[in-house]
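Internal QA ticket QA-208
Title: Verify multi-chain structure generation after dependency bump
Assignee: T.L.

Test input:
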Amino acid sequence: MERHLDEEMEIVKNDLLKMGIMVEEAIQNSIEALKKQDARLASKVISDDERIDEMDNQIEEKIIDLLALFQPFAGDLRFLTTAMHINSELERIADLTVNISQRVLELSEQPMLKPLIDIPKLAARAKHMVRESIDSFIKHDEKQALDVILSDKESNQLRTMVIQELIYDYMVKDASTVTRAVPLLLLTRDLERICDHATAIAEDVIYMVQAKMVKHHRADLKKPKSQKAE
Amino acid sequence: MTKLYMESLKEKSPKSTIDQSTIPDAIQDRGKSMSDKDKQKKDSSAENTKRKELTENLKITVRNFNFYYGPMQALKNINMEVVTNTVVGIIGPSGCGKSTFLRCFNRMNDTIADIRYEGDIHIDGQHIFDKNLDVVDLRRKVGMVFQKSNPFPKSIFENVAYGMKINGVKDKNKIAATVERSLKHAAIWDEVKDRLNKSAFALSGGQQQRLCIARALAVEPQVLLLDEPASALDPIATSKIEELIHELKKDYTILIVTHNMQQAARVSDYTAFFMLGELYEYDQTNKIFTNPSRKITEDYVTGRFG
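Actual output:
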């Protein structure tokens, strides 16, 4: 039976999907701006954030309305509370792309410290994780969500590597590099934070599908071994 | 089923949503130090006490219970347990047997011709279908309130005093005291104390319903059966009844049949989902409404059928 609430939830889902695409684009643009030292593109990311903020408010209001009007239970309740979390996670990711773009603006005046290899890699990973986490939400796919959570470890390693390189190979050796190294260091941390938010989305998806709280229990999560035929 | 029910009850923490063991000892004990070993010992003994309490605290047990109206089987092999001083919400689509089930506990179905039952229902260890059991005694112990309020065509005072009078209580002071206590307990005293001798029909629907609850409480029952007690009431009267149920569970064990899912979610500690005469799921209320174990329960509570 198609219920009125199903239609409303479909709208929420589509809105979040749209927001997810906008956020992915913001990640993409901020990193393009970095690579090309493109101040205009960086400014565009900053100004575009207003639209995402607006969307955040609208989706949140919509979900509050649905909670009040339909008083949903069980799977419906878990869907809507999850959607509410995902909405704010996406908004925070967008804020991080603003931070990154501000660093890009700081850097655009000076020559690049070094050729960028690992930072774009981390950015691509962040974008991929956001896409996969949103995709797992849309498809109610807990396996896909689990993959996102488990892959977060690699992004942490990548960040640590980049930051150590910036500190020990540049800042420690030559103090004059600090003004160019610090913005890179900060935006590296921001990129890794994006991965964390994608992980949080994936954790919410697992709650939505299985009603299991996995956040703060990441140590318990393991990749499922190839299961025996049932 | 039984084990699950016990386990879930054990996990329930009464005053806080936070599991107390997650709070650092320093805050928990205000500086009292306790070695891990002692703590473990304490925990396991606390658990044992709790477990013992639970098995001793079962108010009602239903075992392999079947009920028939003539050739039609209305209840199929029902097994459930109710812990003392909890509220059990009974939900399910129309005709699923929930009212029939409720009426078994005070044998209200006995008045219907051609009914038959198999299996046991024990209240406080007493088999309620025992041939030697006095049904009037049972109904004194197990009070009932119906969907439509049904005060007697008497004064407010007489309505509440009626049960005591037919039970042979003569002491006027005692009757007056019990009437006052029952009306207070049913959260209606302040509204009626100045007009106790007026007709009960002069009260509003919500007040009449609370009067009926007061009348049920006057004979000091232990179990209260509520058959959609608020379905004919406006939201304010409904919320008064719900608040009342919350208060009453300190002293009574309450079974409530309701069509209003939100109401079941708000007032009950445990929820039983019935369909086509079967008990499909019986669990903590928050579990039923956030993550029911069975698909069919999920479909019902989310309004996909029913």
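Spot checks passed. Chain A has a mean pLDDT of 93.
Status: verified.
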